[in-house]
Amino acid sequence: xxxxTPIAQIRPEGAxxxxxxxxxxxxxxxxxxLILLGVLCAAGWLASxxxxxxxxCGPELxxxxxxxxxxxxxxxxxxxxxxxxxxxxxxxxxxHMHESGKLEAAAKPLIWGGLALLLASGALIDxxxxxxxxxxxxxxxxxxxxxxxxxxxxxxxxxxxxxxTRFGELGRKLRLRLMIALSVSQACWWTAVLIGLINSTxxxxxxx
Length: 208
Prior knowledge:
Blueprint: H1 19-54, H2 59-91, H3 97-122, H4 132-150, H5 152-159, H6 172-206
Helix pairs in contact: 1-3, 1-4, 2-3, 2-6, 4-6
């Protein structure tokens, strides 16, 4: 194998003609699973938005919800930063690919647990849906969850490759998919975090 050989064209020795059939079957199951998870994420997001908009929480619940919201943000966003940083180091050739993949797999419970807490606590902090900026924040949260699910097939492809595989050796489509996912993840996270900080600061200044 040479450095300019697309990874997607490499076929393991001894592979038989039935391999593509099995791959298609597994791909179909994985797609159905991702669609189900996407629907669940969207349902959880919608429930959080509707409860936050229609249920009036008192000041005590609001303070508790805000504290949990901040802790969940530190948990999920902090973990994402570490995972994406290691991924960037792989792009630069500083670490092996599987180091990033293993960390991403180990970090999933922290990331998704933090997101679940963000949705639950977000319903307690009285989001102002009439504010376009808040709507942008909520949209960013939904997009980052769906983006996190959509990158799963690409991560499975990466972990199936040799550990010494470099970013430049990947197929063009896979490289583009990874870069788009990383960009969307960081853009949505920073958008949600910054808008949340601005809204919280403005509420304090206005005495709400």
